[in-house]
Amino acid sequence: MSSLRSLPRGRAAAVLGAAAAVALLASACAPKSDSSASGTASGTAAASCSASSLALYKSGQLTVATDSPAYAPWFDSNTPSNGKGFESAVAYAVAKELGFSNSQVKWVTESFDNSYAPGAKNFDFDINEISITASRAKAVDFSAGYYDVTQGVLTLSTSKYAKATSLSALKGAKIGVQVSTTSYQAVENVIKPSGSVSVFNTTDDEVNALKNGQVDAIVTDMPTVFYLASAELDNGKIVGQFSYDGGTPEQFGLLLQKGSKLTSCVNQAIAKLKSSGELASITKQWLSDAADAPELTQ
After folding, report:
1. Rounded to the nearest 5°, which phi and psi values hold at 64?
2. What is the pLDDT of residues 128-180, one digit of tens each?
3. For residues 81 and 91, what is the distance between their CA atoms, to the nearest angstrom?
4. Average pLDDT, integer, range 266-282
5. Pairing of strands 236-242, 198-200
6. 31-149+249-289 matches 151-242 in fold
7. How far is residue 2 from each of residues 149, 219, 246, 271, measured CA to CA in Å?
8. Are 197 and 171 in contact (CB under 8 A)?
9. What percent of the chain is predicted at pLDDT more than 70?
10. Which residue, 114, 128, 171, 295, shows the most beta carbons closer than 10 Å to its own?
11. pTM greater than the 0.85 cutoff
12. Cα–Cα distances in Å, from 104 out to 62, 101, 109, 213?
């Protein structure tokens, strides 16, 4: 599990509100993702996925939801409709595959916690860093995953490791992780530091240890790294990101009403974006290049 995701979303939202800087990102240390969760990629197969034949919340438009504020790198300038930021770009790419122009995409606000609550929805799909889990899939549909959560390395801009460009450059670093997360195994198995890994009970403990010089860097899931660098640290520096799924990758999925007739068509759209390479291009543009979070290799 990821560290920020262990913070209650309400608490994260309160912190961001006080900081007036960014919104929650607490997709809340969702339990480990399970892309085979009941309800994932479900929905009755539609006879046609043309825009004119889709079962929509409002005829003639694709209604897309997300939380507010919506912050970088997932969105830009708290304006989901501008097409900038990873999730805004993904939403418009899916819409295009479904046959909608940008002007036919209408955005509505839906809080994170309410999005996966049982009941009718006022949107066609919600995109909001929502991890696919079996428990959530009992009440809603999820699309196939559009983002595999990676591990991120966060340090201070003044650290000697701030300019590290490879995992091997971090072997001598004192690294902190949160207890009971996959980040510990990721550090031990991928970075393989020369010293012992420091384990902390909470995200706050990790951040304080970094500020106080007890550790040189912390490793946690990339969404948490984005949040901490924006909201918790004035001089945080994202060193980069690397892949480690611990056997069951955590994924974000588009959220739809339970039993939505649109789910299968959304899955087709995501499959096309993957096979064409467009989804990979969007990911690189907004979560690697624009976010200054390069891929770290040995």
Report:
1. -115, 135
2. 999 999 999 999 999 999 999 999 999 999 999 999 999 999 999 999 999 98
3. 10
4. 98
5. unpaired
6. yes
7. 9, 10, 12, 26
8. no
9. 84
10. 128
11. no
12. 6, 5, 17, 51
Sheet containing 125-126: which strands, arranged edge to edge?
105-109, 62-66, 125-126, 251-257, 140-148
Report the chain's mean pLDDT, rounded to a whole number.
Answer: 86
Q: How many CA atoms lie within 13 A of 89 on its CB side?
A: 22
For residue 59, the one-letter residue type is S
| Domain range annotation of the chain | 31-149+249-289, 151-242
Question: What is the sign of the dihedral through the CA atoms of 44, 50, 54 and 56?
Answer: positive
Does the domain made of 31-149+249-289 have the CATH classification 3.30.70.100? Answer: no
CATH architecture of 151-242: 3-Layer(aba) Sandwich (3.40)
Comparison of pLDDT for 214 and 36, the residue scoring more: 214
| Mean pLDDT value of segment 259-265 | 96
